[in-house]
Amino acid sequence: MLAAAPRISDAQAIPSGPSRLRVLDLLRFCAALGVVLFHFGETRAWGTPNAFPALSAVTMFGVYGVRLFFLISGFVILMSAWGRTPGHFAASRIARLFPAYWASVLALGGLAVGGLITDHRPSLTELLANITMLQHGFGVRDLEIVYWTLWQELVFYALIACLAAVGITYRRCLAFMGAWVLLLAIADRVNADLLQAVLVPFSAPYFIAGMALYLVHRFGGSLFPWLFVGVGWTLGLYTALDGEPTAVRKYGQALGSALVVGVISLIFLVMILVALGAFDRIDWRWLTFLGALTYPLYLFHHHVGFLLIQWLHPALGNRLTLPLAVAAALLVAYAVHRLVERPLQPRMRAALDRSLTADAGRVPLTETAAVSPVSSIPAPVPTAVPAAVSSPAPYAETTPGASYLPRGG
């Protein structure tokens, strides 16, 4: 059976399906909505930890939406980086992440100045560190509780940029994932803080599995990518069950563990079906709109929901306040997308791309000195260099082929 497996070439791939996997937009929105419902159901703004006893039995699993985010990121970020230089990849990620993020930091900082806080009034130094999105690396408290996932994503982007610097191919991806898994085990064994910080053990199983599923999607199924999917699933379950999840505390060891295994397995199963093209027919254009709301919804929902729930539930009751808070969070997400992301993202991307080629056409100073600075005697004209030994052309940066556009990014 293994001998009959198709050979994989690094040089080419045959993409199939639509030019954008809109089902990933739907999955990203569902993951964000799951996180929203989890936070809104558990927030102390209700004044009680049991505001929705029956509903919380379901919404408590919304916390696993973050793991779905990481699995999708492994798939989409490798797809976005394939064929790009590290510079162009970095430009695309910066333009994608920072406009809405800066709006979030400034808005939440303004609310904090006005006394509208959830649980912590940030200092000026904390606000400044949060503007960089690197606050976790500096050991500074996140302004918003959801920001911790952004550090995980940034580290993953840096690792993918390193891979892009040597050139992304099928076999290099396999080697990259294999080294990542091995170093995860070593870092856990020797308790190496630096390796732990670079390898992001919490999210790494999902990033690795997502990358492997993209290889399946792009090149077809073969043994090595499926092995990495299995490794990601196994390590994901290990980390999820090792920390005594809420389901275990609520339902007991046997049932709670089974529920956690079921939810994470379902997440992997859905992404496996995406990689195999089972959802390629789901190509409705309005799903792209839902995908566009996902990031600002994730960034803004916690503060918006906390404040509204705190203000409204004493007068309106819990059952009416909850859908109003969700609707308000969606409305804020749309406003941020429409007023911040849509105008700023393309401008920032264009400016960053221009900056990458700012040295194009510039001649070094030593080549422009046709006249000696000490004498007015013209410098001797150099003889022509044979074509066979002429200087190489400047480094030509590549962009993804038009025949295979990133999907769902």
From TrEMBL:
Q: Name one GO molecular function term.
A: acyltransferase activity
Chain spans, region Disordered: 390-409
Please give the Pfam families that the UniProt record associates with this protein: Acyl_transf_3 (PF01757)
Q: Which residues cross the membrane?
A: 21-41, 61-82, 94-117, 145-166, 173-192, 198-216, 223-241, 253-279, 286-309, 321-340
Q: Does the keyword Acyltransferase apply?
A: yes
Q: Does the keyword Ion transport apply?
A: no
Q: Where is the Acyltransferase domain?
A: 24-337
Q: Keywords on this record?
A: Acyltransferase, Membrane, Transferase, Transmembrane, Transmembrane helix
Q: What protein is this chain from?
A: Acyltransferase
Q: Which source organism does the UniProt entry give?
A: Microbispora siamensis
